Amino acid sequence: MKDAVIVTALFDIGRDNWRNFSHSYHTYLEDMKILLSIDCKMIIYTEEKFQQIIGENRLVTQKTFQNTEIRILKKEDLEIYKKYGKEITKLMESEEYIKKKPFNVPESDQPWYNFVNFNKAFFIKDAYKNSIRFPNHSLYIWKDAAVYRSEKHLYHNRIWPDMNKVDLSKITFFVRGTSDKISSIEDHVMSQDRRIQGGCFLLPAHYIEYFCNEFENQLKKVLDLKVMGSDEKMMDLVYLNNPEFCKKIQCEWRQYWKFFKY
Fold it and tell me: Looking at the predicted structure, is the pLDDT value of residue 123 above 70?
């Protein structure tokens, strides 16, 4: 049976105290209400302190309660952090890297921002293998917790996606821009060239292991080059390595809903 599960996560990485690009968790939780109002199967990864408020915000209808699994996890137990936390932190705090980086943005300044974002596909892998309510589904969809920030009426108590409109033969990315080439991995990773959008992607179950392995392979290449960029840059590299496994849909930021709605 073709069935979809949305996977999302919210962890406290201290963003409300950042000098630049700060964002309060009250605002995150308010924005997240829009995602939580969608009538669909949803697995939410979070830490214990957010469990109650997320659960309360998810209780839009009895049906959404039945369609919900909240999985509690300490951020220190994220797979990416356990494997690469020390190496990424050491790199991003090094004098060589600080002199090299051209922008002061979260992905170049905040290791924990990257640990959580780099873990997106690994949340999906855990959901597929270990979910109590929704394991072994045909499609897992990543959505950032605050992916929708306006037009609440579009999402409230609506079913999404229409599986008849989803291509399960490929990984689906949403992109800005049309280029499929880069001249240099190092330059691209450190740039603000925005292509694949990390806020949402569709990962068929049979591609989960492949995607996680490819993401790690690209992350290792980037670390060998002593540079660092966003999860979106790693996804760009995954796509460029094997474009035949991927489908790209061009759209503006956060405009994913319209493509697979009923």
Answer: yes
Q: What distance separates the 2 farthest-apart alpha carbons in the chain?
A: 54
Check if the beta carbon of residue 58 is closer than 8 Å to that of residue 170.
Answer: no
Q: Would strands 42-46 and 4-10 be described as parallel, antiparallel, or unpaired?
A: parallel
Instruction: Tell me how far CA of residue 103 lies from CA of 55, 106, 192, in angstroms.
Output: 37, 9, 8
How many residues are present in the chain?
A: 262
Q: 142 is in which domain, residue-wise?
A: 4-259
- Tell me the C-alpha distance between 262 and 248, whole Å: 20
DSSP state at residue 159 = B
pLDDT at 61 over 90: no
Distance CA 195, CA 241 (A): 15
Task: Residue 193: give its domain's CATH number.
Answer: 3.90.550
- What are the C-alpha distances in Å from 53 to residues 29, 45, 194? 8, 13, 33
Residue 62 has pLDDT above 60, yes or no: no
Confidence of residue 51 (pLDDT cuts 50, 70, 90): very high
63, 121, 128, 159, 220 from 5: Cα distances, Å: 14, 13, 9, 12, 29
Is residue 1 pLDDT above 70, yes or no? no
The structure's pTM equals: 0.95
The C-alpha atoms of residue 145 and residue 12 are separated, in whole angstroms, by 12
Please report, for the chain, how many H helices and E strands are present, in that order.
11, 7
What tens digit of pLDDT does each residue of 198-222 get? 999 999 999 999 999 999 999 999 9
Cis peptide before 161 (omega within 30 of 0): yes
